[in-house]
């Protein structure tokens, strides 16, 4: 299913330069009573989606696969998945991987629903480096997380 979305974009625009891997908050089945089962479901959706989307970006944009390179931005506001998403992004976005793949990978974490994610995204696309974790909150300019 996701392969088709990537292929459609490439067919329509001739190339793929940016992938925004959005793991927005989702409603889960309230009948899940087991806390561990709920945590597993959250991690499958949020972290699993990031890994799957990033691997597809590498498949279609990565230089070793004939791609021209590009940028992947993971967005997450799921507190329980953020550490995993950031850790994964730092590994994929380290200097050697980024140079080999020709793909820059970053995380953008909006702290509030009202934060202007679009402006923040443009800001980090212009200023960011691979492997970085950015936070935007209170409609302010994004800042690097420590």
TrEMBL record:
Tell me which Gene3D superfamilies the record gives: NAD(P)-binding Rossmann-like Domain (3.40.50.720)
UniProt catalytic activity: prostaglandin E2 + NAD(+) = 15-oxoprostaglandin E2 + NADH + H(+); resolvin D2 + NAD(+) = 7-oxoresolvin D2 + NADH + H(+); prostaglandin A1 + NAD(+) = 15-oxo-prostaglandin A1 + NADH + H(+); (15S)-hydroxy-(5Z,8Z,11Z,13E)-eicosatetraenoate + NAD(+) = 15-oxo-(5Z,8Z,11Z,13E)-eicosatetraenoate + NADH + H(+)
- Give GO MF terms, alphabetically: 15-hydroxyicosatetraenoate dehydrogenase activity; 15-hydroxyprostaglandin dehydrogenase (NAD+) activity
Q: What is its EC number?
A: 1.1.1.141, 1.1.1.232
Entry's Pfam families? adh_short
Tell me which InterPro entries the record gives.
Answer: NAD(P)-bd_dom_sf, SDR_fam
Q: What exactly does this protein do?
A: Catalyzes the NAD-dependent dehydrogenation (oxidation) of a broad array of hydroxylated polyunsaturated fatty acids (mainly eicosanoids and docosanoids, including prostaglandins, lipoxins and resolvins), yielding their corresponding keto (oxo) metabolites. Decreases the levels of the pro-proliferative prostaglandins such as prostaglandin E2 (whose activity is increased in cancer because of an increase in the expression of cyclooxygenase 2) and generates oxo-fatty acid products that can profoundly influence cell function by abrogating pro-inflammatory cytokine expression.
Protein name per UniProt: 15-hydroxyprostaglandin dehydrogenase [NAD(+)]
The species is: Macrosiphum euphorbiae (potato aphid)
């Amino acid at each position: 299913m996701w392969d088709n979305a990537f292929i459609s974009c490439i067919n329509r625009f001739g190339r793929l330069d940016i992938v925004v891997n959005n793991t927005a908050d989702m409603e889960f089945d309230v009948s899940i009573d087991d806390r561990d089962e709920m945590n597993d479901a959250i991690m499958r959706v949020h972290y699993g989606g990031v890994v799957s989307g990033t691997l597809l970006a590498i498949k279609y944009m990565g230089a070793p696969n004939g791609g021209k390179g590009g940028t992947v931005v993971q967005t997450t506001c799921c507190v329980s998945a953020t550490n995993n998403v950031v850790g994964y992004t730092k590994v994929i976005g380290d200097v050697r991987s980024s140079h080999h793949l020709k793909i820059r990978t970053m995380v953008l974490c909006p702290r509030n629903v009202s934060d202007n994610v679009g402006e923040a995204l443009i800001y980090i696309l212009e200023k960011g480096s691979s492997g970085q974790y950015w936070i935007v909150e209170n409609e302010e300019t994004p800042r690097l997380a420590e």
